[in-house]
């Protein structure tokens, strides 16, 4: 299968490229920089230069492919509205290009908007609707095309997609522990995150691309709920730091931007995903990764 992928050199995307190439697919990755283009070329991937604002380039990439995997996002925490606009415009472009072709479109989604005080399931619909909503309402927008001759699959990633080299939420929590000399958890430490190892997430994307029916909501989740206290204790053991509670009102001051996410319960189940795709995560747990030095 010829696959066009955005975010091809990102944290998850680079693992997805490896997974696809190993499975015999032909990959073309979107690259913004010379370094990204070189990295893709060395793996044996084709390269399309451009970014999310280059809608003509996105359209051309989709037209030349049998499937599109959209993992890129601007993640501009200083201007989230700009990130939302770019995400929606990209999804609209891909959807308009692929409508009526029968080709697959896999897009990345998160679980933060599904926080309900219980583990989110694949039957939970995202409340993000419209261009001004989280991620520009991209998941719901894409699902509108599920019955229009395009095979739409949403891959919802756990808030912690962990592993060596991760610079995401968990890396920020570890950095806060180093800065303050204490590994913190919020309140009573019971808020929890779902987690998945990067390689397991990449394999899920490939399996979804190859076999998930249109309209599928897939949860890239290996561990349903790792509490903030369990995360703090693993970080504390690894760095040799004391572990202590941080008042929820001080979350942003202590942890930085990630504090507002650490305060959310973003637990999730993947029972339906595992059954649908016969996907069984086998990578290390989040605590195992931390204690093995993945964030050291």
UniProtKB/TrEMBL annotation:
Q: Which GO terms describe its molecular function?
A: aldehyde dehydrogenase (NAD+) activity
Pfam families from the UniProt entry = Epimerase (PF01370)
Q: Which source organism?
A: Amycolatopsis lurida NRRL 2430
- NAD-dependent epimerase/dehydratase domain residues: 3-210
Task: Write down the superkingdom of origin.
Answer: Bacteria
Q: Name one GO cellular component term.
A: cytoplasm
Protein name in UniProt: 3-beta hydroxysteroid dehydrogenase
Stored InterPro entries: Epimerase_deHydtase (IPR001509), NAD(P)-bd_dom_sf (IPR036291), NAD(P)-dependent_oxidoreduct (IPR051783)
């Amino acid at each position: 299968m010829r696959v066009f992928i955005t975010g091809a050199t990102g944290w998850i995307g680079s693992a997805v490229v490896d997974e696809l190439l190993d499975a015999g697919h032909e990959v073309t990755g979107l690259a913004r920089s010379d370094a990204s283009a070189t990295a893709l070329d060395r793996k044996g991937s084709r390269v399309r230069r451009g970014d999310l604002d280059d809608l003509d380039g996105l359209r051309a990439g989709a037209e030349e492919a049998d499937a599109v995997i959209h993992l890129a996002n601007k993640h501009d925490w200083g201007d989230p509205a700009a990130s939302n606009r770019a995400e929606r415009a990209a999804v609209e472009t891909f959807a308009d290009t692929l409508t009526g072709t029968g080709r697959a479109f896999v897009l990345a989604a998160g679980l933060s908007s599904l926080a309900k005080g219980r583990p989110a399931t694949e039957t939970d619909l995202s409340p993000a609707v419209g261009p001004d909503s989280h991620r520009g309402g991209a998941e719901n927008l894409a699902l509108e095309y599920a019955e229009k001759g395009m095979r739409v699959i949403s891959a919802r990633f756990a808030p912690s997609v962990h592993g060596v080299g991760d610079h995401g939420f968990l890396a920020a929590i570890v950095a806060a522990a180093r800065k303050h000399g204490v590994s913190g958890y919020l309140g009573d430490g019971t808020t929890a995150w779902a987690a998945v190892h990067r390689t397991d997430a990449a394999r899920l994307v490939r399996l979804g691309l190859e076999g998930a029916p249109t309209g599928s909501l897939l949860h890239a989740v290996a561990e349903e709920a790792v509490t903030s206290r369990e995360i703090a204790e693993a970080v504390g053991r690894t760095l040799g730091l004391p572990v202590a509670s941080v008042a929820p009102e001080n979350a942003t001051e202590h942890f930085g931007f990630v504090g507002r996410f650490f305060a959310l319960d973003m637990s999730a189940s993947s029972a339906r995903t595992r059954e649908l795709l016969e996907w069984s995560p086998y990578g290390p747990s989040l605590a195992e990764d931390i204690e093995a030095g993945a964030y050291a």
